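ligand=adenosine monophosphate
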Amino acid sequence: MIICKTKSEIQGALAKRRQAGETIAAVPTMGALHEGHLSLIDVANEISDQVVATIFVNPLQFGANEDFGTYPRTVESDLELLKARGCNFAFTPDRNDLFPADFSTKISVAGVGEDHCALSRPQFFDGVATIVTKLLMILSPDVAVFGEKDYQQLAVIKRLVRDLDIATEIVGAPTVRESDGLAMSSRNQYLSVEERNVAPALYKALTAAAEKLHSADHNWSEIRDASIEQLLGAGFSSVDYLHFVDAFSLAHIEKVDRPGRLLAAAWIGKTRLIDNVPVEAA
Ligand code: AMP
């Protein structure tokens, strides 16, 4: 695996592969890699000749009171994991190479980038959209793979690529879970042993709610209220939101008359977890 720290290094290395007629898939990450991230490398390897993973903790997507300073940084072991998984290139840029002191551009995606997670993290999707646009401009990959774990983020990225005519295909990959259902996340390591035992209740509540949506004797607002009670009863401290949305537009819906998605964010102590599940059309 070739490790590049600068834009010019990675661009030079990828240009050679492109000249040799090979296709390139990108997998952007913030590091602290787990099996969820590595599953994206597998998907990328299946659909492309060369795979480039990026590791960059993006300051733009963290709010002033969020965990930018304490976000886990484990670059050396991340590089080992990527290499073992058959990743061909790792791009580990410095903040200064990506963001000159007078950097002043923001990519903002209305509609799918509003509501849901944006309600409590107003800076988040602009930060994601801006860094992903930059990475796609730098790498010009044929394909980029993102996890459905961050479902609204995936929708934002698909929309910006379409709207800005960026010539990269965006591929979504399924959420990888622990054996008890908890979606893998770099932030799970913030959980105490007690909190870790509470955490799988989020996926349980979502799958139960998705099932109930298909039974005639429940309506969405009852299901939502009961699910929130279930989460608080299981030990979650608070529920940021639990929304039933159209799987493509992310607009709120109440009936299973089209492909839908349940999206949720909830706090256990100081840790905010997100998850989502599909709701098939009836
Ligand atoms: P992050 O490092 O959290 O920014 O995530 C980098 C990429 O990995 C994003 O596309 C995430 O959606 C994806 N990802 C994170 N956790 C998982 C998971 N449990 N399963 C699948 N993909 C994931």
